[in-house]
Design goal:
globular; 5 strands
Length: about 350
């Protein structure tokens, strides 16, 4: 039984290594999934194909039990990030793939709980975000995707606009045409990011004080400048669209200056999605909706373990060993932000 659990832990980390690797280990010396990635300690037959690995990942109790408990704790956070990325899924009976989506929800950049939840769904319909966030209240950091509008219609959910998305509109405009308007907008926003880098490790109170004193005047000047520029450019032009994107969402974009605990952008969550976007080129597609959900559950635990500074292999291995005898009422002890490796017993 223990041997099977070790195989599952190894197969799990091996199967998902392409998703985690860009953030886990860019250098061979940091490639620490217990040697699996370089073959020093491969404990399962090399002829185990990915279809078989799906079966190894699926039966683990760690995914459903752990993810349900982690999701419940994530939904107690007053600040959440949300985003989604496409993944291909094999359509049953057709032998073809169609576009499914991996939805992701992470606790706020400055929240004490460090966790990310992935949910694999068949579409990008907003009903998936609504279902996940049903009953939740707080500040939600999202882009301008219409799928979140139903969630944001709830008066208990306050929208946070992503300054990085607003900046990207001007960056693309500058790259395409060297626009002086875009250059000036980037200069303003660059000042905000300089301030953010200086307060990233500050307390909530200090961050608020500095943002209020330094960032607020810059954002006010930026808005006044944008309004003036918008009155001088043709309707429908690329410059007008870039300006309108920010002006239309100005209240959401500037909420960070009023609270030191609010993030300025969605980069924290995008950093948890980017490795998966890279990894999907290696997976090609999910074999079924069930397989996609399994992978999302395991990625939730592995990436949340990484966010808390743990070795994903060591975490998964230990959790699989403990689960059969672990009390369900104490499942919270095995969540990534609380987990502690067991100390080896030394016999004198």
């Amino acid at each position: 039984m223990l041997w099977k659990k070790l195989r599952i832990a190894e197969a799990t980390t091996e199967k998902l290594r392409d998703a985690l690797r860009p953030r886990l280990c860019r250098q061979r010396g940091e490639d620490r999934l217990h040697g699996i990635l370089h073959g020093e300690a491969v404990l399962f037959p090399q002829d185990i194909r990915r279809a078989v690995l799906d079966e190894l990942v699926g039966p683990t109790d760690a995914d459903d039990r752990g993810c349900d408990a982690l999701r419940a704790e994530v939904l107690t956070s007053p600040v959440l990030h949300a985003d989604e990325t496409p993944l291909q899924m094999l359509k049953p009976g057709a032998g073809k793939t169609h576009r499914a989506y991996l939805w992701a929800y992470a606790t706020g950049r400055f929240e004490p709980l460090r966790a990310v939840i992935y949910e694999f769904r068949e579409s990008r319909e907003g009903k998936h975000a609504s279902a996940f966030l049903q009953g939740w209240r707080g500040h939600l950091m999202v882009d301008d995707y219409a799928g979140y509008k139903a969630v944001l219609a709830n008066k208990d959910v306050i929208e946070l606009g992503c300054l990085a998305h607003a900046r990207r509109k001007f960056f693309d405009l500058y790259q395409a045409a060297g626009s002086p308007v875009a250059a000036k907008a980037l200069e303003y926003m660059g000042q905000i990011y300089d301030i953010e880098r200086s307060v990233v490790d500050a307390s909530r109170e200090v961050r608020y004080e500095i943002r209020s004193r330094r960032s607020r005047p810059i954002m006010e000047a930026l808005r006044a400048w944008m309004v003036l520029q918008r009155s001088q450019v043709p309707d429908g032009s690329a410059t007008a669209k870039a300006l309108e994107y920010s002006l239309r969402r100005w209240e959401a974009l500037t909420r960070f200056v009023d609270d030191g605990n609010l993030p300025v952008d969605n980069n924290h969550l995008e950093g948890q999605i980017r490795p998966i976007a890279v990894g999907r080129h290696n997976w090609l597609f999910a074999g079924s909706l069930r397989a996609g959900k399994r992978a999302a559950a395991v990625m939730t635990l592995l990436n949340s373990a990484r966010l808390n500074g743990h070795d994903p292999y060591a975490y998964m291995k230990d959790v699989l060993q403990r689960l059969p005898t672990h009390k369900m009422s104490a499942i919270g002890e095995l969540l990534p932000h609380r987990w502690q490796p067991r100390q080896a017993i030394v016999i004198a």
